[in-house]
Amino acid sequence: MxxxxxxxxxxxxxxxxxxxxxxxxxxxxxxxxxxxxxxFNAAEFGYQxxxxxxxCYLLFSLNLGRGRLARYRDNNKYLSYLSLNFLIAFFGxxxxxxxxxxxxxxNPNQIRGAFWLGYLTRYALAALLIxxxxxxxxxxxxxxxxxxxxxxxxxxxxxxxxxxLKEQLNPHFLFxxxxxxxxxxxxxxxxxxxxxxxxxxxxxxxxxxPVSSLVTVNEELTMVxxxxxxxxxxxxxxxxxxxxxxxxxxQYKLPHLSLQPLxxxxxxxxxxxxxxxxxxxxxxxxxELSVSxxxxxxxxxxxxxxxxxxxxxxxxxxxxxIDIEKTxxxxxxxxPLKHE
Length: 340
Prior knowledge:
Helix content is about 65%, strand content about 10%. The chain is an alpha+beta fold and about 350 residues long. Strands 2-4-5-7-6 form a five-stranded mixed beta sheet, covered by helices on one side. A two-stranded antiparallel ribbon has the order 1-3. The radius of gyration is 34 Å and the shape is rod-shaped. The mean pLDDT is about 80.
């Protein structure tokens, strides 16, 4: 890719140099108007062509390469970026023009000041064309980077969705869910209907919502409340969920399916009894949504991909990462929120 870029810079530089210096060839016509004011000199013409080619290539390489000048632009230091570009271009023009005027002789019929006027005009046009081409290249790069990020987002969400579905369809998960449902049906058919209602709400939210979207805190909490009811029935009320999020934060946004994996992770890796229930607390911590649970860890199979996938989705969608804190008593994950 770098080699292709340098080839592009060279051919663009050559095109600009030939285009802006081709007018000098009109001086070959001895009776022409141009020949009256300019005397064609092959060595001078070659110098002009090569000098302008080098001038153009220098600006392309400085602006489209990986040097300090490009870093100024990438870091939004536009004043420094434009000032350095102007200084480099100005001193380059003066140096090349001074050498040309000293080395080559000129037609005595040439209009006074015509040399510098024509010279600076050509280089100003060259700088303008270079700026346009640089802008086009940067836009193409931006579009390409956006396409790469979109592909990464698609892959990250696909992986996260499949991982979540795998967890939900895990035989152990299904066995516990069906066992809980069986007991509820036998003891309280009315409660069984509520269980099925919450289970369908969880699956509907998981499968119908676009996997590449941001959702409101209110939408995530609504789903989590249904999921918490399933966990309460699964652990026979040895699970407690506390939500302390003010109305002012309900329209803040976060990636779809951010909270459910955290609750499932807590239920999977901790024991829960009526004596020592599993307690999960969701609350605001500054501009982040904090999800914490008490620790009573047990061995459980797992690859840790749930948190990794969640963090990857945050990096792509929010340009931030989740914050994980673990003490001897609590495990906490802080989720950045977006306020539009």
